[in-house]
Amino acid sequence: MARREDGRDWAYRVDPYGFERPEDFDYASYEAFFSRYLVVLTRRAIKWSKLLKGNNSIQKSLKVKRYIRKGIPNEHRALVWMIVSGAQTNMEQNPGYYHRLLEGEKNAKLLEAIKTDMNRTFPDNVKFRKTADPCLQHALYNVLVAYGHHNKAVGYCQGMNFIAGYLILITKNEEESFWLLDALIGRILPDYYSPAMLGLKTDQEVLGELVKMKVPAVAELMERHGVMWTLVVSRWFICLFIDILPVETVLRIWDCLFYEGSKIIFRVALTLIKQNQAFILEATNFPDICDKFKQITKGTFVTECHSFMQKIFADPGSFSMATINKLRETCREKVLSQG
To answer: d(Cα 209, Cα 114) in Å, to the nearest integer?
Structure first.
């Protein structure tokens, strides 16, 4: 085994999902966190095994919601995502549909757009390299091609490649990844990936309104310096925090996203802003604000995924889906009037 100069072997440089750790990765603090988190994971795994008891059905309940908020163990994650998102039901009701999409007529323009993004998808992940066996680029290509032909109104849009890539890493199954992608794009994220991206633009405005309500000093700073929310948070929404927050934290967010819906994205965004309010308010100009927003997604606060997830349900306080929907209505009209 090749060793680095500091004595760490190369295998250690790659996380369990295949992502290479950056040169400046803080191994010491990560190990300290992970040894604590391992105790939590072990406890949760026992509880989940009892809950599932070898069967593949889960009824929505307060207990299940509580379990999901505390994290789904990786060995059960694909199954639970499939069930709670409705993807399992759709897959069972449409046997062979995914494979028929791959065998049918293809749109050459769509294929070209997807091919162009293949090598740009997770260049830091060893499982997506052309040298990997199996190379997950093939599965990713298939899922995106099938989805583009299934949902012609969306086709393919940058950002979908990262989401489909994560789904493949977790499910290790093309067909399941396709149906989970359908759950996200078709139902959970309203109109994020259509050509006009109306839902995405609307939700960024909704976040702005929520910040006015919950963290007014930051909203005032943004307004004073003329910083539009889309400049600092668009990737949070488009990529669902992929490549923004640590992998384990993203997966914990997605656990809740599949069960509770898009409200979770606002909870995460508000927690990041609220927790770092003093730091953001140090900004004195436009580029400074943009830089602060890049920095608040790094460090131990976001790495320690278990305590982070507790914070997202405590810090922003309560806001109902009714509040979100009301804000969506007014913000959607605002976006449409701006053309």
So the answer is: 35
